[in-house]
Design a protein that fits this description.
The chain has ten helices and ten strands. By secondary structure, it is an alpha/beta fold. The chain has a single domain, classed as P-loop containing nucleotide triphosphate hydrolases (Rossmann fold, 3-Layer(aba) Sandwich), CATH 3.40.50.300. The radius of gyration is 18 Å and the shape is globular.
């Protein structure tokens, strides 16, 4: 856990119109760590996750994933290590059946049929959706679609899981099931979310972003317990943490 698996150095990103989104981000995430990205809307959290997976290319600076530069020539290798779950799980569910969605990634790796089947069965079992393998994703509930999206990532056997607002639009029971699922995954987790209760429960440490910069980082309870810091960046401490005082 003491070896970095993601490192950025002076990373900046701007859209084609020149509008800056990230400015000089330097940070390190360790193997099997669980890190929460927090901050107000527009702080750059989602953009940074997409840079980690090579979905966006930084304007300046460097990203290493397990020592491999995130660059065009290395994207296939990087994406084998880094799984990304979008805010909208429907972006990852586009095949006629759940089985086909979960098999899509392994098939594109050129794996043997037996290995593809093994990975699909394992991924669906991990998220509790084995019985829905032949169901159309559109017929799943919101919580089931979130779990299905995670299964499509797990079938690739990544070392890192990037999650962008994973609890969005979930009812209480589905949210609890998702948090419990994520807790049990033996991978490095990076979670960007406004759900600070979930961040408090799931993440060992947090990094606070605002206006595209890192403004604070540290142990989760320590940062989320700093009312003055949170208010300065349009956030509010989780109720459960407030009640402990």
């Amino acid at each position: 856990m003491h070896r970095p698996i993601i490192e950025t150095t002076d990373l900046s990103f701007a859209y084609h119109d020149g509008r800056p989104v990230l400015s000089e981000i330097s940070l390190s995430i360790l193997h099997e760590d669980s890190v929460g990205f927090i901050g107000p809307n527009g702080a750059g959290k989602s953009t940074l996750l997409m840079c980690f997976n090579g979905l966006l290319a930084p304007s300046r600076g460097r990203i290493l994933v397990d020592g491999i530069p995130v660059a065009r020539e290395n994207l296939k290798e990087v994406r084998r290590k880094v799984g990304w779950m979008a805010q909208d799980s429907n972006d990852q569910l586009f095949m006629p059946t759940l089985f086909e969605d979960v098999a899509f990634g392994p098939l594109n790796l050129g794996l043997e049929q037996a290995e593809v089947l093994r990975r699909v069965d394992d991924a669906l079992a991990r998220v509790g959706l084995s019985e829905f393998r032949d169901r159309a994703p559109s017929h799943l509930s919101g919580g089931e679609r979130k779990a299905a999206a995670i299964a499509t990532v797990l079938s690739m056997q990544p070392e890192i899981l990037l999650l962008d607002e994973p609890t969005n639009d979930l009812d209480h029971a589905s949210r609890r099931a998702l948090i419990d699922l994520l807790k049990g995954l033996p991978v490095t987790r990076v979670v960007a979310s406004h759900d600070l209760e979930m961040i408090l429960e799931l993440c060992r440490r947090v990094i606070l972003f605002d206006h595209g910069r890192v403004v604070a980082q540290g142990p989760t309870a320590e940062v989320l317990g700093n009312d003055e810091l949170l208010r300065a960046h349009r956030l509010e401490a989780p109720l459960s943490l407030t009640l402990r005082r």
